[in-house]
């Protein structure tokens, strides 16, 4: 007499009685006596221990290193540029950054600008909050603001992010609102020659009184070119010399000439002379200044 086959009981692990095994039609049916070792799966429990005080301190230190990585890079680039430590192998700082770090000119200057802003935030923001930027992208919108306003903008962005590190978008939105609130009309034109006004701005240390040529007009600021750098400044840090168009063109030629001599790396005494030319408050060089600059130009041609 034929008897109906008994239904095979599904094997369950001791701790998973509600779980059903997955069915795979490609796997052949395994007799019960052959799969006894596959029925029970033992998983070792992992106990999570609280960090010791020393480990908490180490974690905080390492987190700060990660957060400050872009800041340290920017500060190092600033020192490399200001001390001209690239001069033994490269004519210009931009060429050095491209060959040594693979940076575009813009990339290096963005890191340096971000480092300056970060330093300003650390100095003026409440340190007890421990909320500071973690990358250059978060800092970039703040570069459009005066250093005195940057801490206020950052704190507002942190509040908008519910006490966490704010994203680039949040910081940008806060900066935009502040700029609209403190809008100053920008009447400058490309090619116009201006004097840089430091106004107790530590970022402009050594730049006060220098002349600069406007190369880009933004809504609330201008990008200007000096004899050895390019800066983006709020209009409150600029004062027009009101030169005639011909005089502005003449200053552009002088700027190009000084820049070529500067990038040649002729020595510290030459740099001091070029710095003095970068602060002349007239649209021409004196006869002696013209003679010395011409001599230096002849030296770099050799």
DSSP summary: helix tally: 10
Gyration radius (Cα, Å) is: 32 Å
Structural class: alpha+beta
How do the strands of the widest beta sheet line up side by side?
4-3-2-1-5
Poorly predicted regions: 1-23
Task: Provide the CATH top-level class of the largest domain.
Answer: Mainly Beta
Q: End-to-end span in angstroms?
A: 114 Å
Instruction: Please tell me the overall pLDDT.
Output: 82
Biggest sheet features: 5 strands, antiparallel
What is the level-2 CATH architecture name of the largest domain?
Answer: Roll
Protein name: Site-specific DNA-cytosine methylase
Organism: Nostoc parmelioides FACHB-3921
Summarize the structure in words.
- The protein is of the alpha+beta class and 302 residues long.
- The chain has two domains: 69-181; 186-302, Roll (SH3 type barrels), CATH 2.30.30.30.
- Helix content is 43%, strand content 8%.
- It contains ten helices and five strands; from the N terminus they run αααααααβββββααα.
- The chain has helices spanning 53-67, 69-82, 93-101, 105-124, 136-139, 150-160, 168-181, 245-263, 268-277, 287-301, and strands spanning 193-196, 211-217, 221-225, 230-234, 238-240.
- The protein has a five-stranded antiparallel sheet with strand order 4-3-2-1-5, with helices on one face.
- Strand 2 (211-217) and strand 3 form a beta hairpin.
- Helix 6 (150-160) packs across helix 7 (168-181).
- The longest helix is centred in the middle third of the chain and has 20 residues, at 105-124.
- 22% of the residues are buried.
- Residues 1-11 have a biased composition (Basic residues).
């Amino acid at each position: 007499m034929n008897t109906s086959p008994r239904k095979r009981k599904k094997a369950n692990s001791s701790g998973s009685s509600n779980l059903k095994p997955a069915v795979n039609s490609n796997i052949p049916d395994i007799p019960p006596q052959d799969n006894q070792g596959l029925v029970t799966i033992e998983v070792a429990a992992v106990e999570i221990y609280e960090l010791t005080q020393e480990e908490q301190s180490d974690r905080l230190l390492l987190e700060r290193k990660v957060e400050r990585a872009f800041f340290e890079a920017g500060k190092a680039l600033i020192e490399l540029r200001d001390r001209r430590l690239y001069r033994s192998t490269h004519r210009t700082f931009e060429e050095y950054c491209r060959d040594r770090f693979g940076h575009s000119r813009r990339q290096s200057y963005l890191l340096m600008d971000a480092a300056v802003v970060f330093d300003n935030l650390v100095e003026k923001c409440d340190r007890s909050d421990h909320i500071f930027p973690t990358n250059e992208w978060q800092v970039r919108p703040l570069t459009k603001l005066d250093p005195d306003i940057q801490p206020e903008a950052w704190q507002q962005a942190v509040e908008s992010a519910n006490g966490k590190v704010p994203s680039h978008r949040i910081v940008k939105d806060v900066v935009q609102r502040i700029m609209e609130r403190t809008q100053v009309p920008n009447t400058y034109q490309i090619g116009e020659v201006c004097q840089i006004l430091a106004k107790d701005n530590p970022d402009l240390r050594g730049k006060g009184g220098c002349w600069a040529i406007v190369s880009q007009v933004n809504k609330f600021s201008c990008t200007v070119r000096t004899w050895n750098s390019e800066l983006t400044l709020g209009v409150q840090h600029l004062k027009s010399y009101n030169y005639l168009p011909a005089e502005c063109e003449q200053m552009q030629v002088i700027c190009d000439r000084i820049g070529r001599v500067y990038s040649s790396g002729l020595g510290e005494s030459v740099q001091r002379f070029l710095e003095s030319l970068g602060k002349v408050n007239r649209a021409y060089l004196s006869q002696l200044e013209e003679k010395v600059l011409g001599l230096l130009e002849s030296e770099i041609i050799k």
